[in-house]
Specification:
The chain starts with a helix and ends with a helix. It has helices at residues 2-10, 25-37, 55-63, 70-73, 89-102, 110-120, 125-149, 162-168, 203-206, and strands at 47-52, 76-82, 153-157, 177-185. The chain has 9 helices and 4 strands; from the N terminus they run ααβααβαααβαβα. It has 210 residues and is an alpha+beta fold. Helices cover 46% and strands 13% of the residues. It is globular. A 4-stranded antiparallel beta sheet has the order 1-2-4-3, with helices on both faces. It has one domain (16-86, 125-206): NADH Oxidase. It binds flavin mononucleotide (FMN).
Length: 210
Amino acid sequence: MKNVLDKLNWRYATKKFDPSKKVSKEDLGTLLEAARMTASSYGLQPYHFFVVEDDKVRATLRKASWDQPQITDSSYLLVLANKPTFDESLVDNFIDNIVDVRGIAKEDLAGYEQMMKGALMGLTDAQKASWTSSQAYIALGNLLTIAAEMGIDTCPMEGFDKAQYNEILGLTEKNLNAAVVLAIGYRSEEDETQHYPKVRYSKENLITHI
Ligand SMILES: Cc1cc2nc3c(=O)[nH]c(=O)nc-3n(C[C@H](O)[C@H](O)[C@H](O)COP(=O)(O)O)c2cc1C
């Protein structure tokens, strides 16, 4: 278990990536599979992930990200986009997928289907957007940990203009919204931040055993 904690101490939100060191396609594939395997509420996965490699697009996104260099200097930029709104088809598609994968009769899932629709369809648009965005953040957390486990550096990023990202990547017309971004690559030796001690509240402050 100590090894896991060592990895979590090793990782940090990388400020300066080394553009000459590129994460392999194979490792990228593992990370994307980890994102795909992430748990989500009911299993509905109300999001889509974009891997941005194109230099021109990344340069444009950097301008929409307070000029943060991680946007262009990392190996890959992952944009985790949530579905800001949804209708019953979100549940219907999921049910169809269960039928396919598990070979269960659709009728046998009617109770589960109604339960999900009952819980979700009455939400306001703002509640739907907040809930789907939360689901995308679970994938983000998973990616941070798995990347650290693989010795790959990351920077989770909220410091960007969502409206501009949605426009640049054409997300709005796909009913998607840029929730959060993850820069993936290898740290530059010159990034002083890697040597800073971790700042975290104490266990007493954060955890209560009842
Ligand atoms: C959701 C989220 C958004 C963040 N946005 C940015 C960002 O835009 N730019 C940046 O340099 N760091 C960003 N960070 C990094 C945090 O500042 C950093 O994770 C925190 O200070 C803890 O430090 P550590 O991750 O290095 O241990 C973000 C972190 C999270 C989880």
